[in-house]
Amino acid sequence: MISQLNGTLLAVILGLVNPIILILIGMPWYFALAVTVGSVLLAQLAYVRYKWSLPTVYLINVAAIASVWMHGEALVQYRFADWVMDDLYHIRSGYYVNRPQLRKVLRDKEFVVDYVTNIDGYRIGAGQDPEVSAEQVDWLFLGDSYTQGAQVQFEQLYSTQLYHRFPSKIVLNTGVSGWGIHESLAFLKAEGERLGPSIVFLQVANFNDFMKVRERRASFTDWLMQESMLVRLALQSIKYTNPTNLPLGRWVEPFYATDEENRKFNVFYTPSSPEKDQDLRSFAKAIGEVNEQVRKIGAQLVLVQVPTKEQVSFTYLEEAVRQLHIDARKLDMSKPDSILKRLADSLKVRMVNLQPAFGAANTFPFYAYDEHLNEFGHGLAAEAIAQALTAWFGEDPIRMLSKSGHPDRYPTYNRKGDSILFQSFREGNSEILVADSSLTNEHRLTTDDIDESHPTRIPNSDSIIFTVGNASTGSTRLWISNSDGRNPTPLDTNSTHCSAIASASHDGRFIAYPQWTCGGPDGGQQLVLYDRKSGTTMQVHDLGDGVWRPMFSPSGRYVAYVARNNGQLDVYEFDLETKARRQLTSTPFDEWDPTYSPDGSYLAFSAKAHGNWDLFLLNLKTESMVQLTATRGDEWDATFAPDGSTLAFGAHYGLFRGIYSIRLPR
Q1: Labelling 544: which of 59, 210, 341, 627 has CA 20 to 30 A away?
Q2: Going by C-beta distance under 8 Å and a sequence separation of 6 or more, which residues neighbour residue 579?
Q3: Is the backbone peptide bond immediately before 407 cis, with ω within 30 degrees of 0?
Q4: Cα Rg of the chain (Å, integer)
Q5: How many CB atoms lie within 10 A of CB 608?
């Protein structure tokens, strides 16, 4: 009797538990039912007929379920991976964020996109360093898939295009598909104070941000889909509708096919409902909380409103009205715009509504089937926001020259000013390149797996000089080659001598550079002057642990350089005629990268006056000093254009690195 009761209990437990577990791990209901029936029959046979103990039967059942899951996971991963939706996200603090260090290609009938993220999970360009982390920023962009822009390349994102208009600003795009106002608020609370932006841009989409406004938390099935390809394959068609299966073959939110749904969710639909009224109250409250949090971290809020296709195109509106049988007389297509405008005015925050720019455009800013912005739409958004920012704050004095997205540095003009020699990180190491003065037509001079860096031209010759080797090991040496990179030879044949970062005199005869015994330079280096005509060297500065960055004056009489004095890097100048040395700067902070103006009356250099490297200009006659930049980024490697009107320099602005220029004050 007890055996029969236990057998019945066993059947009931397995019959209830197994299908729940199997369905939770993503199995279809019919497969879960078949496995459950089979497991119950086998368990009954093992327990009743073969007298296995209950713990043994339960243990074997657990092992069987685990085996089914693992084999299914392996089968999907190795044979059916192409059937599974791309896994771009993971759950953090209950909401989705981008997975870090992704390198995926997203394909759709309307676009092919390289989707790359850095170590923090933020989108970057294919040429950018994924190991560079986002620290403090100037402009923080929050939003959903319209800001994430997975339908366009990183370089086409409105936030990236906006950065190119204001390149001295550290810009961070944190957009994630599916984010509502509450997810943006949660991110702002978690990361806003650390990032310390001066402006927070909150993107609001009329498409879906006005409906179902509530705080959403990731569910258990969301977690399972994140961890298991098998579960993702099983549930993706249930949790995510394919647009081709929708009534119009595309997403048309917030338009619905019934009067009840439009009353509940459609912000354009004038008849209302308790649900819609509550959503609008929740929306206003959430925007207010975002503004409060933005003010708390000392920033300004700017609302960016993205219209729907139906607001921009009568054709798409007519299609939605006709096929969903909506009474057009009940629609107010400007309603969300007026709601957000009143809210922005009441909160005293700035706002950019993209609808006027989109409506006036000759090219449609959305994809035909996908509901998101195309490349042209992102460009329109960037232009509209840029115009507003320029009106509010003025233009950025800094201009970005680099086009590739790679971390370019150490620019040097030729004498005519129509080309720039520079270094760039390509295919895993530093290479030497040359381009026109706008860096639009570049040509590689080196194409190997050795680091070549710090290039500079040797005047009155067809030669360049550059550093070769790994700087982190202190084993670099100087090499000279033709201006096209051919016939490279070491400057010094003594293999015990290491050197780096050279400068050539105006006539090309002398080369100044720091030199040390290989294995250093911790043991100290000396600044030497090499006479290419006689082959002899002369010591300019005694051995020290910080003698770097020599630069000849235009006349050839002086060499400026940095040297450490009492733990501080200052700028010095050596007179080649009198052999006298004078200290040009004596500040409580480090200086670096001195360079003379074409007329020799000014010296530009980098200085770490406020925790980061900024550009300064020293008048050599009056000894007065002017700070040229005051950004959160780092500016180095300055070089004057031949006409003396601008400085080109290398800089790091957050996730963006490259060569920039700034016009000098007159």
Answers
A1: 627
A2: none
A3: no
A4: 32
A5: 15
- Structure tokens, 273: 């409902």
* Contact assessment for residue 303 and residue 204, using Cβ atoms and an 8 Å cutoff: yes
Read off the pLDDT of each residue in 303-309 and give the average, rounded to a whole number. 97
**pLDDT, tens digit (0-9, with 9 covering 90-100), for 263-272:** 999 999 999 9
Q: Half-sphere exposure of 429 toward its Cβ, with a 13 Å CA cutoff?
A: 15
Using DSSP's 3-state secondary structure scheme, residue 231 falls into helix
Tokens of 190: 């978690």
Closest CA to 569 of 538, 613, 628: 613
Contacts of 628 (CB under 8 A, 6+ apart): 604, 614, 615, 616, 617, 647, 662, 664, 665
CB 592 within 8 A of CB 636: yes
Return d(Cα 154, Cα 150) in angstroms, integer: 8
Predicted confidence at residue 89, as pLDDT, reads 80
DSSP H or E segment with residue 47: none
Q: According to the model, what pLDDT value does residue 453 have?
A: 95
Model confidence band, residue 521 (pLDDT cutoffs 50, 70, 90): low
What is the side-by-side strand order in the sheet with 123-124?
103-108, 111-117, 123-124
Cα distance between residue 201 and residue 207, in whole Å: 18
Q: From 245, 210, 429, select the one nearest 332 (Cα to Cα).
A: 210
Helix (H) / strand (E) element for 243: namely none
Instruction: Tell me the two tokens of residue 180.
Output: 């509502």
| CB-CB contact of 508 with 460 (8 Å) | yes
| Cis previous bond, 254, omega within 30 | yes
Residue with structure tokens 């009743």?
Answer: 48
Exposed, middle or buried, 277 (CB in 10 Å: 0-12/13-18/19+)? exposed
The string over 102-129, giving b where at least 16 C-beta atoms fall within 10 Å of a residue's C-beta and e elsewhere, is: beeeeeeeebebebbbbebbbbbbebbe
Q: How far is CA 624 from the centre of its chain?
A: 38
pLDDT of res. 49: 54
- Helix segments in 88-173, DSSP class H: 145-148, 158-165
- Strands 300-306 and 350-353 turn out to be parallel
The string of DSSP letters for 325-349 reads T--GGGB-TTHHHHHHHHHHHHHT-
Domains and CATH numbers, the chain: 2-79 (no CATH), 133-217+255-396 (3.40.50.1110), 399-663 (2.120.10.30)
Of the candidates 303, 354, 341, the residue with the CA atom closest to the CA atom of residue 199:
303
Distance CA 116, CA 124 (A): 6
Alpha carbons 374 and 249: distance in angstroms, whole number: 18
